[in-house]
């Protein structure tokens, strides 16, 4: 099978799935619990660096490294989510942006993260001594994605989802219904961050080399626009938003469309995302799959 | 006498302004208590202290034998004190049923894991929540509106839904902040009937209200606040006939002017 599938396409699909996992985690924090985050790449980086450190520097089994990375991301995300208890909305956006920048500069300068050189030689996980091939890794990422979609679906319909909805809509009401808003907000950051931790760990073992450039503000902002355009608080929205926006630039590359200079594709990408955001905010502020804003008819009649 | 709620020497200051000043209040189990007073008398501040939104500068609150002074709002709710708001606060984009279900939050226990794995306990709980919410909607005659977005309802119905949300978990005590505001006389009557029903289910009621006719007819006892001070406490008919209360409401000076003409 490996022979007739262009490995480049395989990689695109793997990275797409990893981005969807990132998007789901961010949607949990921002779409379901209403806590704006512009620092999601930090959680992604924590996941990637943790598994890299465990598997390369400590020499643990890659599977165990991934597991530990997810647990560490869960815990650190909870801690990084603590500011959300004090600040809201635009202030929270700026705070998380700051945390994201701090995290990136830590990755870039700390000794344990390999400084500016990053970490190289991250091993591919193996099963019974057989190292996963590209196709098998794709399958692994796909299964993880399906599991996480299911988890998010169940969570959104559970007591946690109910608490997050109430917090997003009106924190005073949430509290007066007996919801410990502090606890559930931190939990949203922790679980959403753990999703990013999974994505980061899968990314690290796929590319085998990571450096701090990957985990910057551009990624956080891109992810947020993908999730918002797709529709906050819906799984379909994240699947759609991340897929379309992630694949669009690749289409230009794959089909070698010459309208734009491929060397500047990343610049055009940001222009396109920005433009789409503006258009969406004007015509469909709740995203493509977002819940419709209720009709105001009756309210006027009253 | 079994006091459900006992507040002693409650004081709250905002800068130089004493919004609530040394107020004592005892509420008996099963009582309907009316809290009245002119605008700015400190009634809503008093509610906000009782529900933990504000922490009193002085004083002590005992509820059901527990000292709840300084409890956070969610802890107060978990003690069984629920409330409605002066400016209706429903989740407007969500259905009436979803809003009611929120009222049962404190009674569900299924956490993340049992939800993810779809364990029987969590499914049973979901079913129970849906059933209880539906039963209350039936009792209030709101079943037709169950799937309507709460924000689309008429004002009167929004009030009813908000009360239903506070009521559905059978709390020990419910606080209604101006429930009759903006209602016509028919709606006020059905509201009074609802409050009596609430008492019958064993829930103690405190309500803030400007509609004096309604509170006199409905309440077992009236408490009057004026400039943060309690100026009367007792039988509704006696309280509204109390000269101090009349003066607080109408204002001494204006009375003199009218007489002077």
Automatic annotation (TrEMBL), chain A:
PANTHER family: HIGH-AFFINITY BRANCHED-CHAIN AMINO ACID TRANSPORT PROTEIN BRAE, HIGH-AFFINITY BRANCHED-CHAIN AMINO ACID TRANSPORT SYSTEM PERMEASE
A family per Pfam: BPD_transp_2
Principal cellular location given in the protein's record: membrane
Keywords from the named record: Cell membrane, Membrane, Transmembrane, Transmembrane helix
Localization (cell): Cell membrane
Organism placement in taxonomy: Bacteria, Bacillati, Bacillota, Bacilli, Bacillales
Transmembrane segments: 12-29, 41-60, 66-84, 135-152, 182-203
Protein known as: Amino acid/amide ABC transporter membrane protein 2, HAAT family
Entry membrane topology: Multi-pass membrane protein
Any one Gene Ontology molecular-function term assigned to this protein's record: branched-chain amino acid transmembrane transporter activity
Gene Ontology CC: one annotated term: plasma membrane
Originating species: Seinonella peptonophila
From TrEMBL, chain B:
Pfam family name, one: ABC_tran
Protein name, per record: Amino acid/amide ABC transporter ATP-binding protein 1, HAAT family
Domain of life: Bacteria
Keyword line: ATP-binding, Nucleotide-binding, Transport
Listed GO CC annotations: plasma membrane
Organism field: Seinonella peptonophila
Source lineage: Bacteria, Bacillati, Bacillota, Bacilli, Bacillales
Keyword GTP-binding on entry: no
Residues in ABC transporter domain copies: 5-252
Coiled coil residues, start to end: none
MF terms in GO: ATP binding; ATP hydrolysis activity
CDD domains, per database record: ABC_Mj1267_LivG_branched
Record flagged with keyword Protein biosynthesis: no
InterPro entries, per the entry: AAA+_ATPase, ABC_AA/LPS_Transport, ABC_transporter-like_ATP-bd, ABC_transporter-like_CS, BCA_ABC_TP_C, P-loop_NTPase
């Amino acid at each position: 099978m490996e022979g007739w599938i262009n490995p480049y396409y395989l990689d695109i699909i793997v990275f797409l799935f990893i981005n969807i996992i990132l998007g789901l985690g961010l949607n949990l924090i921002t779409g379901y619990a209403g806590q704006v985050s512009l620092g999601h790449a930090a959680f992604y980086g924590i996941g990637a660096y943790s598994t890299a450190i465990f598997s390369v520097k400590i020499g643990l089994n890659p599977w165990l490294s991934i597991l530990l990375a997810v647990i560490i991301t869960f815990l650190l995300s909870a801690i990084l989510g603590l500011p959300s208890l004090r600040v809201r909305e635009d202030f929270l956006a700026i705070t998380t942006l700051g945390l994201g920048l701090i995290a990136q500069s830590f990755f870039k300068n700390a000794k344990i993260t390999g400084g500016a050189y990053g970490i190289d030689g991250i091993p591919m996980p193996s099963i019974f001594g057989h190292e996963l091939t590209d196709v098998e890794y794709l399958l692994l990422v796909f299964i993880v994605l399906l599991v996480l979609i299911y988890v998010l679906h169940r969570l959104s319909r559970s007591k946690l989802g109910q608490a997050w909805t109430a917090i997003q809509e009106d924190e005073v009401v949430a509290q007066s219904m007996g919801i410990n808003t502090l606890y559930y907000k931190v939990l949203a950051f922790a679980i959403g961050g753990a999703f990013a931790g999974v994505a980061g760990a899968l990314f690290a073992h796929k590319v085998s080399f990571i450096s701090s450039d990957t985990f910057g503000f551009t990624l956080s902002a891109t992810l947020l626009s993908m999730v918002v355009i797709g529709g906050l608080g819906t799984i379909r929205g994240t699947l759609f938003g991340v897929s379309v926006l992630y694949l669009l630039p690749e289409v230009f590359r794959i089909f070698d469309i010459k309208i734009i200079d491929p060397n500047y594709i990343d610049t055009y990408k940001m222009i396109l995302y920005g433009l789409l955001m503006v258009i969406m905010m004007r015509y469909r502020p709740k995203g493509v799959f977002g819940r419709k804003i209720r009709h105001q008819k009756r309210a006027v009649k009253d | 006498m079994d006091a459900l709620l006992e507040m002693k020497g409650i004081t709250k200051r905002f800068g130089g302004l004493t919004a609530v000043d040394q107020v004592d209040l005892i509420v008996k189990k099963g009582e309907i208590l009316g809290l009245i007073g002119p605008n700015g008398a400190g009634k809503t501040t008093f509610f906000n202290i009782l529900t933990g939104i504000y922490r009193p500068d002085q004083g002590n609150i005992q509820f059901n034998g527990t000292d709840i002074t300084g409890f956070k709002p969610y802890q107060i709710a978990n003690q069984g004190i629920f409330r409605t708001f002066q400016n209706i606060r429903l989740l407007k984009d969500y259905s009436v049923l979803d809003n009611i279900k929120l009222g049962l939050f404190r009674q569900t226990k299924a956490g993340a894991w049992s939800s993810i794995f779809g364990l029987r306990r969590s499914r049973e709980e979901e079913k129970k929540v849906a059933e209880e919410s539906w039963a209350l909607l039936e009792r209030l005659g709101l079943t037709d509106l169950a799937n309507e977005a709460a924000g689309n309802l008429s004002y009167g119905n929004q009030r009813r839904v908000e009360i239903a949300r506070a009521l559905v978990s059978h709390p020990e005590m419910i606080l209604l902040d101006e429930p009759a505001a903006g209602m016509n006389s028919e709606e006020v009557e059905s509201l009074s009937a609802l409050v009596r029903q609430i008492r019958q289910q064993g829930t103690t009621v405190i309500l803030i209200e400007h509609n004096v006719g309604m509170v006199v007819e409905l309440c077992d006892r009236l408490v009057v606040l004026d400039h943060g001070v309690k100026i009367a406490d007792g039988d509704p008919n006696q309280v509204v006939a109390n000269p101090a209360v009349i003066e607080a409401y109408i204002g001494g000076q204006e009375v003199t002017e009218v007489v002077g003409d």
